[in-house]
User: Fold this.
Amino acid sequence: MTVTSHLPKYMLFSNCRRISESRFQSPGSQQRFQTASEGFAQAARKCYREVPSEKSESFAAMLRHSPLIQMGPAKDKIAIGQIFHVVEDDLYIDFGGKFHCVCKRPEVDGNKYQRGSRVRLRLLDLELTSRFLGATTDTTLLEADAVLLGLVESKQTKQKG
Amino acid sequence: PPDLEDKLLTEPLRHPDFFNVKELFSLKDLFDARVHLGHKKGCRHQFMEPYIFGCRLDQDIIDLDQTMQHLQLALNFTAHVAYRKGIILFVSRNRQFCHLVESTARECGEYAHTRYWQGGLLTNAHIQFGPGIRLPDLLIFLSSLNNVFEPHVAIRDAAKMNIPTVGVVDTNCNPCLITYPIPGNDDSPTSMELYCKLFKMTIIRAKNKRKQIEVFQDLQSQEKHDTSRPVLAEGQA
Assistant:
């Protein structure tokens, strides 16, 4: 049994004690010895098989450990986004939420904000919705709201500057 | 021969997952593509409540376990329709992804309609397009709302014309009239790219399978033909 080689020493000792005890008792206890070792083997198998594998993670577990849930309320949280579309002065930035946010190109370093640049944002809301008078459901703008703080300063830019 | 054709059409129906669409996606793929993110609680449609896992800080989260099942059923159905040479029409009125939907349809040899839907396209087809027109055999909605957040007219029209529909329904959509709804996010680019990729792969897979089985049956019937002819002995030739 390869399982026993990984067991800590005190567990091996207690197992041996159980085996030696049962041998001194009546032959009817041979069955009890067998069931005891089987039960122990089963328990050991259960214990050593619980290696966390990526494939068997449940949806609830994945959700719980996801950055969106771990972040909590989106108000005033700092996130890093990537610009995926530019229309003159408007920058469409995707930060990993359901929607993107649209920010105005800042005056400082305006030319550095191109498609693919990574930027720092302060999130305000993940989805801009509001219920107007007389409506049954909220009206959604299909956009998130965030304040652009600046470009992400990578190590390369720091060394150059 | 009618016998072989019969077998060609009935054989895939015996298996629950003949085209093995389950292997095309996994829970992790759906999660990474942000399929589980829904709209805010105030935008929720009453009939989407069974598909919602919960609500976190006012944002609905769609239950991906149910999405997996629905997606597998929907992909299996589209594969069967494509196998039987059905016409598939992709419909989406979301302007952000209309180019993606059109190029997906072009790549798998099917059709797409991502512009304004005229009233009688399906219900008044014989007058608008002429007699003898063939309507699509399946409509796939990659976004079941139109630009004013109302259900797309084609859902109701397809139900009227007995055309089955497959549709991605977000938390603010009405899943009622859609035959194979897929609860999931229809607003993020990653999730739309995932759906387009999955539909394209299933349709191409089903069409290739059909070609493969037809070629195989042709070869089989040719062999039968060859063996039935009398074989000349070497001395006589």
Remarks:
- The mean pLDDT of chain B is 92.
- Residues 50 and 109 of chain B are 35 Å apart (CA to CA).
- The domain at 34-117+134-218 of chain B is CATH 3.40.50.10490 (Rossmann fold).
